[in-house]
């Protein structure tokens, strides 16, 4: 059964009122493929575009998005994030790996916040680099790990 559908088959927020707050964490990752001419510009560190430093701006955008997840995704509970960190690195194969780690002590999980943070950081990289090339592909955003709540999750390797 879907968690956001009630007995009348209508959309509904999950009732977490009876749950006890516990520490929960999530790690999400987005992968961005960039063409060689874009990857070469990142080789010595963060690329500065006309809009500013790409990776630094993407980190800020990702954290801001994670904090606004409940405003973006219907039926997502508003939660006060206790920690949100985004790490961005250029891999040897020219791909950009964006990792978002989110932590909260709450009655509901923080996976959507981590996924939103990683995805918006990836979109920001795209936006800031599209003037160089539109051959940028956000090819994957996925949950890597979650801890707390009913069960833990670790993505298969």
What does this molecule look like?
The chain is α+β, with helices and mostly antiparallel strands and 157 residues long. It has a single domain (22-147), classed as Molybdopterin cofactor biosynthesis C (MoaC) domain (Alpha-Beta Plaits). It contains four helices and seven strands; from the N terminus they run βαββααββαββ. It has a five-stranded antiparallel beta sheet with strand order 4-5-1-6-7. Strands 2-3 form a two-stranded antiparallel ribbon. The longest helix is centred in the last third of the chain and has 19 residues, at 111-129.
Task: Give the helix/strand layout.
Layout: E1 22-33, H1 36-42, E2 48-49, E3 52-53, H2 54-67, H3 69-72, E4 83-90, E5 95-106, H4 111-129, E6 137-147, E7 153-154
Antiparallel strand pairs: 1-5, 1-6, 2-3, 4-5, 6-7
Helix pairs in contact: 2-4
Class from helix and strand fractions = alpha+beta
Mean pLDDT across all residues, rounded? Answer: 91
Task: Write out the strand line-up for the largest beta sheet, numbering strands in chain order.
Answer: 4-5-1-6-7
CATH architecture: 2-Layer Sandwich
Spell out the CATH superfamily. Molybdopterin cofactor biosynthesis C (MoaC) domain
Please trace the helix and strand order, writing H or E for each element.
EHEEHHEEHEE
Question: How many helices does DSSP assign?
Answer: 4
Number of domains: 1
Percent range for β-strand residues: 25-35%
Which CATH class applies here?
Alpha Beta
Helix coverage percent: 25-40%
Can you tell me the overall shape?
elongated
Distance from first to last alpha carbon = 27 Å
Compute the gyration radius: what is it?
17 Å
**Biggest beta sheet attributes:** 5 strands, antiparallel
CATH topology: Alpha-Beta Plaits
pLDDT below 50 for ≥5 consecutive residues: which ranges?
A: none
Number of strands: 7
